[in-house]
Amino acid sequence: MDFLDPVLSGFGVVFTPVNLLYVLAGVVIGMVIGVLPGLGPVATIALLLPITYEIPAESAIILLAGIYYGAMYGGTITSVLLRLPGEAATVITTIDGYQMARQGRAGSALGIAAIGSFIGGTVSIVGLTLIAPLLARFSLGFGPPENAVLAAMGILLVATLGTVSTAKSLAAAALGLLLAAMGPDPLFASPRFTFGSINLADGVDFVALAMGLFGLGEILYHLEHRARNRLPKPTVSNVWPSRADWRQSRGAVGRGSVVGFVIGLLPGGGGVLSSMAAYALEKRRSKTPERFGRGAIEGVAAPETANNAAATSSFIPLLTLGIPTNPVMALIFGALLLQGIPPGPRLINENPEVFWGVVDSMYIGNIFLLILSVPLVGVFVRLVSVRDSILAPIVVMVTMLGVYTVNNSTFDMLLVIFFGVVGYLMKKTGFEPGPLVLAFVLGSILETAFRQSMRIFDGDPTGFVTRPISGTLFAATVLALLAPVGFRLIRKRRALAPEAGQPAGTPEGEPRADTAEGESPVGKSEGESPAAKSEGEEPATALEGRKRVPPPVD
Questions:
Q1: Where is this region: Disordered (predicted)?
Q2: Chain centroid, CA 2 distance in Å
Q3: What contacts 24+ positions apart, CB below 8 Å, involve 23-26?
Q4: How far apart are CA 216 and CA 403, in angstroms?
């Protein structure tokens, strides 16, 4: 009962009329921005950060969480109907979802996506409810050394695993660390890298950085690259999947829930990686893999389930350890800091209404998502036809007004423009802004914890390894960094190995690989003729008790 008391108190927070409205608003906004290519949850949450500053902490995080997992399903609609992924995590869904739509099964694809998203999200919420308090209790023993290793692990793993190019990701993370160093020294408050500007005395504002990179930068990039052709108007019928469709895809839904939950816990995980992993797993397990890419319903069920499960489980490291595992979590981290609430192991005890209010709101949000997903399909499809010339100016205006209201600073508006240009150039040259923002958020944690740890260890860095928890985390980080290299070497060795089962040049005196145990090298037992015999045929040698008759002589 002691465990259920805080969970029930969280439902008391959620079931207030205001917070129920925020849950509903978050899910609807998430679905809308998931449909619109070029926005997505990262840009939208960045744009809404100033609004969250004016509302209670639990309501703000409930709203942002609803936007995140709502966007995971919103992108499914255009992925299936138009082959146009509204969100990066739904790119995999276009492979089989669009083929199902062409076969007249768009309703089944959308229905199984809605059911899979609900099941995957619910399974992940139950895991969050059970695991997060245990992990928070365990992490209460963390000190500066453990926090330093965790922050370094988050930066390195996201930079190396979160994007395609490791070199570009590391470069973006290094720029984020440099920006995090601007402002007052965390221990002595002396100014650094301010270039004599009073406006930079407190460092770079996180809201201006996020809204510039993800808001204005994304708008500029998609204004240039979004296709201008007129999209066909799709039709949807038979919205819910049949019993045969459910029987065929229920295994994929179950496996996608587990895959998404696990990958969401990892730095660099999230919707994109989990959907790809779930799709690859289903294709490998299938007895008919040739169906994938031609309208296999498992190819829709698995990735859609996995990305919603990952969206929920990624809250566990943020709320319990204070470590954001992807760009969306970094923005929610910033939203908590705007409210004066540092995420981490003490959050569950010091601000239980925030912790359990957010967790329990996800149960209600998933129900809203299931109820609203099908009736609003027609409305969401019409949103795709909104011209960029109308949408972009509105978003830019909201961005500028929003960032100004945080500090009433015109300098922050200039920063948004500057980082918007930086974000556009990064996207154009193949750099992802995600590692930069994560390194910016974790950089201040890393520096403060590292310098405090070096004071504790009297300047001896081996203390990070000798402490049990920090040493274990350090070893896990090294192992995670070296694992991809090891797998790459194993694949290379397998590729270089000969196709034959037995290498050429068997050593003399050894039997061949295809020789059965107990057989002589020629393949016959002792005393047996080496000539092949068919069944029932007498051997050429004389049989016992029978004398061979010589052939007659002409």
A1: 498-554
A2: 33
A3: 23/62, 23/63, 23/66, 23/361, 23/364, 23/365, 23/368, 24/66, 24/368, 25/63, 25/66, 26/62, 26/63, 26/64, 26/65, 26/66, 26/67, 26/70, 26/365
A4: 12
Question: What is the rounded distance in angstroms from the CA atom of residue 28 to the CA atom of residue 369?
Answer: 8
Residue 529 sits at φ, ψ, to 5 deg, of -65, 140
- 414 touches 200 (CB < 8 A): no
What is the Cα–Cα distance from 235 to 303, expressed in whole angstroms?
23
Tell me which amino acid residue 218 is.
E
- Distance, in Å, from the CA atom of 467 to the CA atom of 471, rounded to the nearest integer, reads 6
Rounded-to-10 torsion of CA 302, 307, 308, 309: 80
Distance of CA 507 to the CA centre of its chain: 51
Which tokens go with 414? 């200039």
**Helix, strand, coil shares, percent, the chain, to 5:** 70, 0, 30
Per-residue pLDDT of the chain (554 residues; tens, 9 = 90+): 566 777 788 888 899 999 999 999 999 888 887 776 556 677 778 778 877 778 888 898 899 988 888 887 777 777 787 666 656 667 778 788 888 888 888 878 888 888 888 898 889 888 888 888 887 777 666 778 887 887 787 777 666 655 457 788 888 888 988 998 888 888 777 888 888 888 888 888 877 887 788 778 877 887 776 544 444 555 566 667 778 888 888 889 999 999 888 888 766 556 666 887 788 888 888 888 888 888 888 888 998 898 888 888 888 888 888 878 777 888 888 888 888 888 887 888 888 888 899 889 999 988 888 888 767 766 766 666 666 677 778 778 877 877 776 677 888 889 989 998 998 898 888 887 878 887 887 788 788 888 888 888 888 888 888 888 788 878 877 887 777 677 778 878 887 775 544 454 444 444 444 444 444 444 444 444 444 444 444 444 444 444 444 555 44
Distance CA 164, CA 161 (A): 8
Given the structure tokens 């129920």, which residue do they identify? Answer: 20
Q: Which residue has the tokens 């045929």?
A: 537
Instruction: Specify whether the backbone of 527 is left (phi greater than 0), alpha (psi in -120 to 50) or beta.
Output: left
**How far, in Å, CA of 455 to CA of 466, rounded?**
16
Query: Is residue 282 a contact partner of residue 116, using CB atoms and an 8 Å limit?
Result: no
DSSP secondary structure letters along 160-213: HHSSS-HHHHHHHHHHHHHHHTSEE-TTT--EES-TT-GGGTT---HHHHHIII
Residues in the chain: 554
Q: Which amino acid, one-letter code, is at 432?
A: E
User: What string of H, E and C letters represents the secondary structure of 331-346?
Assistant: HHHHHHHHCCCCCCCC
Helices (H), 266-351: 271-285, 298-313, 315-321, 327-338, 347-350
- CB neighbours of residue 376 within 10 Å: 17
Angle at 413 between CA 410 and CA 419, to 5 degrees: 145
The partner residues of 183 in beta bridges, in order of sequence, read 192
